[in-house]
Amino acid sequence: GQSLEQPSEVTAVEGAIVQINCTYQTSGFYGLSWYQQHDGGAPTFLSYNALDGLEETGRFSSFLSRSDSYGYLLLQELQMKDSASYFCAVREIGKLIFGQGTELSVKP
Amino acid sequence: NAGVTQTPKFRVLKTGQSMTLLCAQDMNHEYMYWYRQDPGMGLRLIHYSVGEGTTAKGEVPDGYNVSRLKKQNFLLGLESAAPSQTSVYFCASSYGGTGPGTGELFFGEGSRLTVL
C-alpha cells in the first residue's frame, strides 16, 4: 500500500518563508505533486517533481529526494492569500494518491 | 473551454436511494479519477480509469461503481446510499502515461452529497 506523511498545520507570518515536508512510502513511484486548496474548493496544481532536485515556479519551489522518499514545498514571501490547505501526492502507474494535507495559516 | 464539469453540484439523498454523478472533460485526457473528501481530510481515491472502457479500484471503492463508456465521461454510481457516503466528491482528469504531464490533475468544482 501507500502512505504519505505531512504536518497537519503550519502557521507563519506574512512575508516569511515556510517549508511543508512530505515523506512517502509507495511502490511504483513516478513522481511527487503538490496541490493547493482554498476553503474546500477545487484543488489546483502547483508543481510536479519526477527527478531529484529543486523546481522553482515564482514564489513556490518544490524539492524531491527519491532515495530518501522525501519532498517539500517551499513558499517564499508569504501573502495572506497563501492561507490554504496544501497536499502532496504520489504518482503511481495510473493513479495519484494524496496525503492528508497541511493547513497553512498566514498571520499579519 | 469548460475543462472538467461535474453534475450535479449538490444532492440530498435518503438512505438506500441510488444516484449517479457525471463527470465530463473536454481536454481529451486518457486518465480520469473520482475522489472523495471528508472534513479535515485529504482526497481519497475511489476509482480511476486509464482509458475508455477501463476502470480500476482505488483506496476506498466499496459502495461505489463506475463506468467509462466514452473517453470524455466518467460516471460514479451509488447503488444504495449510506450516511457514511456523505462527502464532497471530486472528479479529475490528466494525461496518460508516466511523463511529466501526468503529475497534473485537472479537477472539477466538486459535488456535495448528503445522505440522510
What would your notes on this structure say?
The complex is a heterodimer of chains A (108) and B (116). Chain A has 108 residues and is an all-beta fold. Chain A is built from no helices and eleven strands. In chain A, strands 2, 4, 5, 9, 10 and 11 form a six-stranded mixed beta sheet that branches. A five-stranded antiparallel beta sheet of chain A has the order 1-3-8-7-6, with no helix packed on it. Chain B is mostly beta strands. Chain B contains no helices and eleven strands. Chain B has strands at 4-7, 10-13, 19-25, 31-37, 43-49, 56-57, 64-67, 73-78, 87-94, 106-107, 111-115. In chain B, strands 2, 4, 5, 6, 9, 10 and 11 form a seven-stranded mixed beta sheet that branches. In chain B, strands 1-3-8-7 form a four-stranded antiparallel beta sheet, with no helix packed on it. Chain B is globular. Chain B starts with a strand and ends with a strand. The mean pLDDT of chain B is 94. The interface between A and B is medium-sized, with 27 and 28 residues.
Report the count of strand segments of chain A: 11
Whole-number mean pLDDT of chain B: 94
* Mean pLDDT rating of chain A: 95
Please, how many helices of chain A? 0
The dominant shape of chain A is: globular
For the biggest sheet of chain A, the summary is: 6 strands, mixed
Which spans of chain A have pLDDT < 50 for at least 5 consecutive residues? none
Summarize the helix and strand pattern of chain A as letters: EEEEEEEEEEE
Q: Main beta sheet of chain B: strand number and arrangement? A: 7 strands, mixed
Write down the overall geometry of chain B.
globular
Task: Name the chain pair with the biggest interface and residue counts per chain.
Answer: A-B, 27 and 28 residues
Give a count of the beta strands of chain B, DSSP E runs of length 2 or more: 11
Measured between the Cα atoms of the first and last residue of chain A, the distance is: 41 Å
- SSE-based structural type of chain A: mainly beta
Distance between the termini of chain B: 36 Å
Our Rg estimate of chain B from Cα atoms comes to 13 Å
